[in-house]
Every structure is written in C-alpha cells, then in structure tokens.
Amino acid sequence: MGRFIQNLMKNKRGSLIDILYMIIGLFMLALTIILVFFALTKINDKIQETGTFTNESEQIIQNFEDRYINIFDIGFLVIMIALFISVIVTAFYIDVHPIFFGISVLLLISFLVISAILSNTFFDIVGNDLLSTEASQFIVIPFIMNHFVALIVIMSFIVLGVMYAKTRMGEF
Fold first, then answer.
1. What is the DSSP letter of 95?
2. Does the structure show a pLDDT above 80 at 22?
3. Of 43, 126, 156, 168, which sits 20 to 30 A from 62 (CA to CA)?
4. What is the four-CA torsion angle of 158, 147, 109, 87, rounded to 10 degrees?
5. Cα distances (angstroms) measured from residue 11 to each of 116, 135, 166
6. Helices (H), the chain
7. Which of 33, 24, 37, 163 has its CA nearest to residue 100?
8. Rounded to whole angstroms, how far apart are CA atoms 119 and 143?
9. What does the pLDDT look like over 58-102, one tens digit per residue?
10. Distances from the Cα of 90 to the Cαs of 27, 95, 162, 165, in angstroms?
11. Domain range summary for the chain, segments of one domain joined by +
12. Are 76 and 32 contacting, i.e. CB atoms less than 8 angstroms apart?
C-alpha cells in the first residue's frame, strides 16, 4: 500500500493554475449550492401542499430544508479553506526560478480579473428575483463572494511567498 501511494504522488506538483481552478471551483460550488437550495424549497413546498406523502416523509424533507443552509454555508467555508491549504502545500513543491516572478505576478493579475468577473456574475445570478429570496438566507457564501477578489489577492500572495521563499533558502 505504501508503494502505491509513493507511485501515485511521484512527480505530483502544483502550479499557479491551481489558483485558477480554485477560483472557478468555488464559483461553481457557490452557485450550485444556492441553485440546489432553490430547487429543494420549491420541491418541498409542493410536497407539503399535495398531502400525498406521509407525515413522516414530509417532516424528513422539511428537516432537511431547515438544516440545508447551515450545513452547506459552513461546508462551503470548510471546502474553501481546504482548497487553499492544498494549493499552498502543492505550491511548495513547485521549482521556480526567481526570474519568473514577474510572469507569475502578471498571471495572478489575470486571475484577479477572472475572480472579479465571476464574483459579479454570481451576484447577477443570485440577485435575480427568482433566486434572491433563497440566496438571502445564506450568510457565509455571499460574504465570501462579496470579498472574493480580496481573498484571492491574499491567497495569491501567500502562494507566491511559498513558491519563491524556497529560493531564499538556497535551493537555487
């Protein structure tokens, strides 16, 4: 088993593109969580209205809807932190020469533009009259998406620091 894991992890290194994957993944996850909650509330409303299900079934669906926001709002935060930590850990394994620092900064600036566009797109979608009621019940997801660019700036500078700090330790 140990040899399998060693072979799996052999030559697995991160890259700056991991930050872009994290940005797109967080955007898609936030949007998916809110869209699923929208569908869940509509389905639950119909189930509660029809009366064709048993009281126990109706109660189970209602309990899930009541807990959905707490579970997925905090879950989104946990996933974001886990992704950030994984990007930092994989960034440590990137061998870069200091001459590429300028290119890295330009690449990260383009990522910031993309994160700003996705943040605005998120609020355009959830600000729709159809979704605004359900989206307003979440606390963490809108907060993170509202401060998405600032969070990505902080994360990006930490990743750059981790990548280029190795050169100061005498690796190059």
1. -
2. yes
3. 126
4. 40
5. 33, 42, 18
6. 2-9, 17-50, 55-92, 101-126, 132-135, 140-146, 148-168
7. 163
8. 11
9. 888 889 988 999 999 999 999 999 999 998 888 887 777 778 888
10. 21, 11, 10, 14
11. 15-168
12. no
Residue 116 pLDDT more than 80? yes
DSSP state for residue 128 in the 8-state scheme: S
Q: Residue 172 carries which side chain, given as an amino acid letter?
A: F
d(CA 4, CA 103): 36
With both helix axes pointing from N to C terminus, report the angle between 55-92 and 148-168 in degrees, rounded to the nearest 10: 30
Structure tokens at 137: 């019940």
Rg, the chain, Cα only: 21
Q: Which of 108, 85, 94 is nearest to 156 (CA)?
A: 108
19 contacts 162 by C-beta, under 8 angstroms? no
Q: Whose structure tokens read 């707490």?
A: 70
Distance from C-alpha of 56 to C-alpha of 24, rounded to nearest angstrom: 39
**According to the model, what pLDDT value does residue 89 have?**
86
| pLDDT tens, residue by residue, 33-55 | 999 999 999 988 888 888 788 88
